[in-house]
Amino acid sequence: MTSQLAPEPAKARRTPTRPGDRVFFGISFGAALVILLTLAGVAIFLTAEGIPGVTASADEVKSGLSFPAYVGPLIYGTLLAAVIALVLAVPVAIGVALFISHFSPRRLSAVFGYVIDLLAAVPSVVYGAWGIIFLAPTIVPFYRWLFENLGFIPLFAGPPSATGSTILTAGIVLAIMVLPIVTAICREIFLQTPRLHQEAALALGATRWEMVRMAVFPYARSGIVSASMLGLGRALGETMAVAMVLSPALVVTPNLISSTNPNTIASNIALSFPEASGLTVNALIASGLVLFVITFAVNFAARAIVDRRKDFSGAN
Asked: Which residue ranges traverse the bilayer (predicted)?
Protein backbone atom coordinates (compact mmCIF):
# COMPACT_ATOMS: atom_id res chain seq x y z
CA MET A 1 0.00 0.00 0.00
CA THR A 2 1.53 3.23 -1.16
CA SER A 3 1.53 6.11 1.23
CA GLN A 4 0.42 9.44 -0.10
CA LEU A 5 2.53 12.41 0.71
CA ALA A 6 0.72 15.26 2.44
CA PRO A 7 0.41 18.29 0.20
CA GLU A 8 2.75 21.11 1.00
CA PRO A 9 1.03 24.13 2.52
CA ALA A 10 0.48 26.88 0.05
CA LYS A 11 2.93 29.69 0.43
CA ALA A 12 1.43 33.02 1.26
CA ARG A 13 1.52 35.35 -1.66
CA ARG A 14 3.50 38.47 -1.11
CA THR A 15 2.28 41.62 -2.69
CA PRO A 16 5.05 43.06 -4.82
CA THR A 17 6.40 46.32 -3.48
CA ARG A 18 6.67 48.98 -6.11
CA PRO A 19 9.20 51.82 -6.01
CA GLY A 20 6.39 54.38 -5.68
CA ASP A 21 5.06 52.58 -2.60
CA ARG A 22 8.48 52.63 -0.98
CA VAL A 23 8.90 56.33 -1.71
CA PHE A 24 5.46 57.12 -0.33
CA PHE A 25 6.12 55.07 2.80
CA GLY A 26 9.43 56.83 3.35
CA ILE A 27 7.85 60.27 2.97
CA SER A 28 4.98 59.40 5.32
CA PHE A 29 7.29 57.86 7.91
CA GLY A 30 9.61 60.85 7.68
CA ALA A 31 6.74 63.28 8.20
CA ALA A 32 5.53 61.36 11.25
CA LEU A 33 9.08 61.25 12.62
CA VAL A 34 9.51 65.00 12.13
CA ILE A 35 6.35 65.64 14.14
CA LEU A 36 7.54 63.42 16.99
CA LEU A 37 11.02 64.95 16.98
CA THR A 38 9.55 68.46 16.96
CA LEU A 39 7.30 67.63 19.89
CA ALA A 40 10.19 66.06 21.77
CA GLY A 41 12.38 69.06 20.99
CA VAL A 42 9.79 71.49 22.34
CA ALA A 43 9.38 69.40 25.50
CA ILE A 44 13.15 69.18 26.05
CA PHE A 45 13.62 72.91 25.50
CA LEU A 46 10.79 73.88 27.84
CA THR A 47 12.06 71.49 30.50
CA ALA A 48 15.71 72.54 30.26
CA GLU A 49 14.95 76.26 30.23
CA GLY A 50 12.09 76.05 32.71
CA ILE A 51 13.79 74.17 35.55
CA PRO A 52 15.87 77.23 36.64
CA GLY A 53 12.64 79.22 36.84
CA VAL A 54 10.96 76.53 38.93
CA THR A 55 13.84 76.37 41.41
CA ALA A 56 14.39 80.14 41.56
CA SER A 57 13.65 81.87 44.85
CA ALA A 58 11.02 84.60 45.16
CA ASP A 59 13.52 87.47 45.26
CA GLU A 60 15.20 86.35 42.02
CA VAL A 61 12.15 86.86 39.78
CA LYS A 62 10.19 89.97 38.90
CA SER A 63 6.90 88.74 40.37
CA GLY A 64 8.42 88.35 43.83
CA LEU A 65 6.70 84.97 44.25
CA SER A 66 7.83 81.38 44.29
CA PHE A 67 6.96 79.41 41.18
CA PRO A 68 3.98 77.49 42.67
CA ALA A 69 2.47 80.72 44.00
CA TYR A 70 3.16 82.40 40.66
CA VAL A 71 1.79 79.73 38.33
CA GLY A 72 -1.18 78.66 40.46
CA PRO A 73 -3.39 81.69 39.68
CA LEU A 74 -2.38 81.45 36.02
CA ILE A 75 -3.50 77.81 35.83
CA TYR A 76 -6.76 78.78 37.50
CA GLY A 77 -7.37 81.64 35.05
CA THR A 78 -6.49 79.48 32.06
CA LEU A 79 -8.87 76.71 33.06
CA LEU A 80 -11.62 79.16 34.07
CA ALA A 81 -11.57 81.01 30.75
CA ALA A 82 -11.51 77.73 28.81
CA VAL A 83 -14.39 76.25 30.83
CA ILE A 84 -16.48 79.39 30.29
CA ALA A 85 -15.79 79.16 26.57
CA LEU A 86 -16.83 75.49 26.42
CA VAL A 87 -19.98 75.99 28.48
CA LEU A 88 -21.10 78.76 26.15
CA ALA A 89 -19.89 77.33 22.84
CA VAL A 90 -20.60 73.59 22.90
CA PRO A 91 -24.43 73.70 23.19
CA VAL A 92 -24.63 76.36 20.49
CA ALA A 93 -22.21 74.45 18.28
CA ILE A 94 -24.21 71.23 18.62
CA GLY A 95 -27.43 73.07 17.77
CA VAL A 96 -25.92 74.79 14.72
CA ALA A 97 -24.32 71.57 13.50
CA LEU A 98 -27.59 69.69 13.95
CA PHE A 99 -29.51 72.36 12.05
CA ILE A 100 -27.03 72.26 9.17
CA SER A 101 -26.95 68.46 8.96
CA HIS A 102 -30.59 67.50 9.55
CA PHE A 103 -33.02 70.40 9.58
CA SER A 104 -32.05 73.14 7.13
CA PRO A 105 -32.68 73.03 3.36
CA ARG A 106 -29.72 71.77 1.36
CA ARG A 107 -28.85 75.14 -0.20
CA LEU A 108 -29.09 76.91 3.13
CA SER A 109 -27.01 74.27 4.87
CA ALA A 110 -24.26 74.74 2.27
CA VAL A 111 -24.21 78.49 2.94
CA PHE A 112 -24.08 77.94 6.69
CA GLY A 113 -21.26 75.43 6.23
CA TYR A 114 -19.19 77.94 4.25
CA VAL A 115 -19.78 80.65 6.85
CA ILE A 116 -18.70 78.36 9.69
CA ASP A 117 -15.53 77.41 7.81
CA LEU A 118 -14.74 81.08 7.18
CA LEU A 119 -15.21 81.96 10.84
CA ALA A 120 -12.59 79.36 11.75
CA ALA A 121 -10.08 81.18 9.53
CA VAL A 122 -10.51 84.63 11.15
CA PRO A 123 -7.29 85.64 13.00
CA SER A 124 -7.52 85.79 16.78
CA VAL A 125 -6.40 89.43 16.86
CA VAL A 126 -9.60 90.35 14.98
CA TYR A 127 -11.70 88.66 17.65
CA GLY A 128 -9.67 90.44 20.32
CA ALA A 129 -10.20 93.84 18.69
CA TRP A 130 -13.92 93.17 18.38
CA GLY A 131 -14.07 92.08 22.00
CA ILE A 132 -12.33 95.15 23.45
CA ILE A 133 -13.89 97.76 21.14
CA PHE A 134 -17.47 96.49 20.82
CA LEU A 135 -18.30 93.63 23.18
CA ALA A 136 -16.75 94.93 26.41
CA PRO A 137 -18.52 98.34 26.47
CA THR A 138 -21.78 96.83 25.22
CA ILE A 139 -21.96 94.14 27.90
CA VAL A 140 -21.41 96.49 30.89
CA PRO A 141 -25.19 97.04 31.49
CA PHE A 142 -25.68 93.28 31.54
CA TYR A 143 -22.98 92.96 34.18
CA ARG A 144 -24.72 95.59 36.27
CA TRP A 145 -27.99 93.67 35.96
CA LEU A 146 -26.26 90.47 37.06
CA PHE A 147 -24.79 92.26 40.07
CA GLU A 148 -28.09 93.85 41.08
CA ASN A 149 -30.21 90.71 40.68
CA LEU A 150 -27.80 87.81 41.18
CA GLY A 151 -25.13 89.40 43.34
CA PHE A 152 -25.72 86.85 46.09
CA ILE A 153 -24.05 84.27 43.82
CA PRO A 154 -20.22 84.40 44.16
CA LEU A 155 -19.85 84.35 40.37
CA PHE A 156 -21.61 87.72 40.11
CA ALA A 157 -20.67 89.27 43.44
CA GLY A 158 -19.21 92.36 41.79
CA PRO A 159 -18.66 95.19 41.91
CA PRO A 160 -19.15 95.09 38.14
CA SER A 161 -16.38 96.34 35.91
CA ALA A 162 -16.98 99.77 34.38
CA THR A 163 -15.04 98.84 31.23
CA GLY A 164 -16.31 95.30 30.65
CA SER A 165 -12.76 93.89 30.60
CA THR A 166 -13.50 90.80 32.68
CA ILE A 167 -12.77 87.10 32.60
CA LEU A 168 -16.37 86.53 31.48
CA THR A 169 -15.85 88.82 28.49
CA ALA A 170 -12.67 86.93 27.63
CA GLY A 171 -14.60 83.65 27.95
CA ILE A 172 -17.30 84.91 25.57
CA VAL A 173 -14.67 85.91 23.01
CA LEU A 174 -13.03 82.49 23.36
CA ALA A 175 -16.43 80.83 22.95
CA ILE A 176 -16.96 82.63 19.65
CA MET A 177 -13.49 81.55 18.54
CA VAL A 178 -14.09 77.93 19.55
CA LEU A 179 -17.58 77.78 18.04
CA PRO A 180 -16.54 77.24 14.37
CA ILE A 181 -14.17 74.38 15.20
CA VAL A 182 -16.65 72.46 17.35
CA THR A 183 -19.49 73.14 14.89
CA ALA A 184 -17.56 71.93 11.86
CA ILE A 185 -16.48 68.69 13.55
CA CYS A 186 -19.94 67.97 14.99
CA ARG A 187 -21.52 68.62 11.59
CA GLU A 188 -19.30 66.03 9.93
CA ILE A 189 -19.96 63.53 12.72
CA PHE A 190 -23.73 64.00 12.46
CA LEU A 191 -23.59 63.51 8.69
CA GLN A 192 -21.80 60.17 9.19
CA THR A 193 -24.69 58.67 11.17
CA PRO A 194 -25.85 55.57 9.22
CA ARG A 195 -28.89 56.37 7.11
CA LEU A 196 -30.48 53.03 7.99
CA HIS A 197 -30.46 53.92 11.70
CA GLN A 198 -32.25 57.18 11.04
CA GLU A 199 -34.78 55.67 8.65
CA ALA A 200 -35.50 52.82 11.08
CA ALA A 201 -36.28 55.29 13.86
CA LEU A 202 -38.58 57.29 11.59
CA ALA A 203 -40.27 54.11 10.36
CA LEU A 204 -41.08 53.17 13.96
CA GLY A 205 -42.99 56.44 14.35
CA ALA A 206 -40.34 58.65 15.93
CA THR A 207 -40.41 62.36 15.30
CA ARG A 208 -37.36 63.98 13.81
CA TRP A 209 -36.16 65.14 17.24
CA GLU A 210 -36.71 61.69 18.69
CA MET A 211 -34.78 60.21 15.76
CA VAL A 212 -31.91 62.61 16.49
CA ARG A 213 -31.99 61.78 20.20
CA MET A 214 -32.14 57.99 19.69
CA ALA A 215 -29.99 57.51 16.58
CA VAL A 216 -27.75 60.51 15.96
CA PHE A 217 -26.61 61.51 19.44
CA PRO A 218 -25.63 57.99 20.63
CA TYR A 219 -23.62 57.46 17.45
CA ALA A 220 -21.91 60.85 17.68
CA ARG A 221 -21.35 61.01 21.45
CA SER A 222 -17.61 60.39 21.41
CA GLY A 223 -17.26 62.61 18.35
CA ILE A 224 -18.89 65.46 20.26
CA VAL A 225 -16.50 64.84 23.15
CA SER A 226 -13.47 64.91 20.85
CA ALA A 227 -14.72 68.10 19.16
CA SER A 228 -15.19 69.71 22.57
CA MET A 229 -11.68 68.67 23.61
CA LEU A 230 -10.21 70.20 20.45
CA GLY A 231 -12.10 73.38 21.21
CA LEU A 232 -10.77 73.23 24.75
CA GLY A 233 -7.23 72.94 23.42
CA ARG A 234 -7.79 76.04 21.27
CA ALA A 235 -9.18 77.96 24.24
CA LEU A 236 -6.32 76.91 26.54
CA GLY A 237 -3.64 78.16 24.18
CA GLU A 238 -5.27 81.37 22.93
CA THR A 239 -3.07 84.40 23.50
CA MET A 240 -3.81 87.65 21.70
CA ALA A 241 -7.59 87.76 22.10
CA VAL A 242 -7.34 87.23 25.86
CA ALA A 243 -4.43 89.65 26.21
CA MET A 244 -6.40 92.37 24.41
CA VAL A 245 -9.67 91.87 26.30
CA LEU A 246 -8.61 91.01 29.85
CA SER A 247 -7.42 93.30 32.65
CA PRO A 248 -5.40 90.66 34.50
CA ALA A 249 -3.94 90.17 37.96
CA LEU A 250 -2.38 87.24 39.83
CA VAL A 251 -5.50 86.38 41.81
CA VAL A 252 -7.79 83.42 42.34
CA THR A 253 -11.40 84.55 42.51
CA PRO A 254 -14.73 83.07 41.36
CA ASN A 255 -16.03 86.55 40.52
CA LEU A 256 -16.61 86.78 36.77
CA ILE A 257 -17.71 90.41 36.37
CA SER A 258 -15.34 92.48 38.51
CA SER A 259 -12.34 94.45 37.34
CA THR A 260 -9.98 92.12 39.27
CA ASN A 261 -9.50 89.09 37.05
CA PRO A 262 -7.19 86.08 36.95
CA ASN A 263 -4.82 85.93 34.02
CA THR A 264 -4.11 83.03 31.66
CA ILE A 265 -0.74 81.42 31.07
CA ALA A 266 -0.53 82.26 27.37
CA SER A 267 -1.64 85.86 27.87
CA ASN A 268 0.78 86.35 30.76
CA ILE A 269 3.69 85.09 28.66
CA ALA A 270 2.78 87.41 25.78
CA LEU A 271 2.44 90.46 28.04
CA SER A 272 5.43 89.81 30.30
CA PHE A 273 8.05 88.33 27.98
CA PRO A 274 9.21 91.58 26.25
CA GLU A 275 10.27 93.14 29.57
CA ALA A 276 11.53 89.95 31.25
CA SER A 277 15.16 89.16 31.92
CA GLY A 278 17.24 86.66 33.84
CA LEU A 279 15.40 84.02 35.81
CA THR A 280 12.08 85.76 35.08
CA VAL A 281 12.40 84.49 31.51
CA ASN A 282 12.96 80.98 32.84
CA ALA A 283 9.87 81.30 35.04
CA LEU A 284 7.80 82.29 32.01
CA ILE A 285 9.18 79.36 30.04
CA ALA A 286 8.34 77.07 32.97
CA SER A 287 4.75 78.34 32.91
CA GLY A 288 4.73 77.53 29.20
CA LEU A 289 5.81 74.00 30.13
CA VAL A 290 2.83 73.77 32.48
CA LEU A 291 0.51 74.85 29.65
CA PHE A 292 2.17 72.29 27.37
CA VAL A 293 1.48 69.53 29.90
CA ILE A 294 -2.14 70.64 30.36
CA THR A 295 -2.75 70.70 26.61
CA PHE A 296 -1.12 67.30 26.18
CA ALA A 297 -3.26 65.86 28.98
CA VAL A 298 -6.43 67.26 27.38
CA ASN A 299 -5.59 65.77 23.98
CA PHE A 300 -4.62 62.44 25.56
CA ALA A 301 -7.92 62.32 27.44
CA ALA A 302 -9.84 63.09 24.26
CA ARG A 303 -8.04 60.33 22.39
CA ALA A 304 -8.76 57.86 25.19
CA ILE A 305 -12.47 58.73 25.17
CA VAL A 306 -12.69 58.33 21.41
CA ASP A 307 -10.86 54.99 21.47
CA ARG A 308 -13.36 53.59 23.97
CA ARG A 309 -16.11 53.85 21.36
CA LYS A 310 -14.13 53.55 18.14
CA ASP A 311 -15.97 50.42 16.99
CA PHE A 312 -19.35 52.16 16.81
CA SER A 313 -18.53 55.85 16.76
CA GLY A 314 -18.34 58.34 13.94
CA ALA A 315 -15.35 60.07 15.49
CA ASN A 316 -12.79 57.94 13.63
From this structure: 23-46, 74-100, 112-143, 163-186, 239-257, 277-302
